[in-house]
Design brief:
Elements: H1 13-36, H2 42-55, H3 62-83, H4 88-105, H5 113-131, H6 133-147, H7 150-169
GO molecular function: telomeric DNA binding
Organism: Oncorhynchus mykiss
Domain TERF1-interacting nuclear factor 2 N-terminal: 31-142
């Protein structure tokens, strides 16, 4: 199987036309989330990206899709880490998001060593941030702005939304 393609069910163009009005509403809402960088809603944005790219896999390459999905979920997790104190309840809040990240990296049997390594490093970072308040404070004061590639995540979000708008015009 070619790792850049999705072999799930494809919708015919006539079926996509029925989805355009709700798709317009959802994409407008998600565009607002992306533009305002409303990180606490990135989970919903990630779910929208997943839904749309499963219906129309040509919107993004598999690598772009995984990068966008993981980037959105990771950004949300880091925002949750920023506000959580080092206690078991904090981990319980974050764990479902880490599980979602894990499920995204094992999508449809395609394994990418680079993606797996990124996921493993990210999970390790989150565990460190949850367990060590000094490292957490240092990370968010010093490394936060330089450690994340916000520009590439924004570019992929923009590309995805532009492709969705093209579908709406059909």
């Amino acid at each position: 199987m070619d790792p850049t393609t999705f072999s799930g069910p494809h919708l015919p163009l006539s079926s996509l036309r029925l989805l355009v009005p709700p798709l317009r509403l959802m994409s407008a809402s998600m565009w607002q989330v992306a533009q305002q960088r409303n990180v606490m809603q990135y989970g919903k944005l990630e779910e929208f990206v997943t839904l749309v790219t499963e219906m129309v896999p040509e919107l993004l390459t598999l690598k772009q899709r995984v990068q966008l999905i993981l980037g959105l979920r990771a950004r949300l997790v880091l925002e949750l880490c920023r506000g959580v104190e080092s206690n078991p309840a904090g981990y319980k809040t974050i764990q479902p998001h880490l599980d979602r990240i894990h499920s995204c990296t094992t999508h449809k049997g395609s394994e990418d060593k680079e993606v797996e390594a990124s996921k493993d490093n990210f999970v390790e970072l989150v565990q460190t941030l949850l367990e060590d308040s000094m490292k957490r404070e240092h990370f968010f004061q010093v490394r936060w702005l330089t450690s994340l590639c916000h520009k590439s995540l924004f570019q992929i979000k923009l590309k995805f939304i532009c492709h969705v708008r093209r579908i709406q015009r059909v």
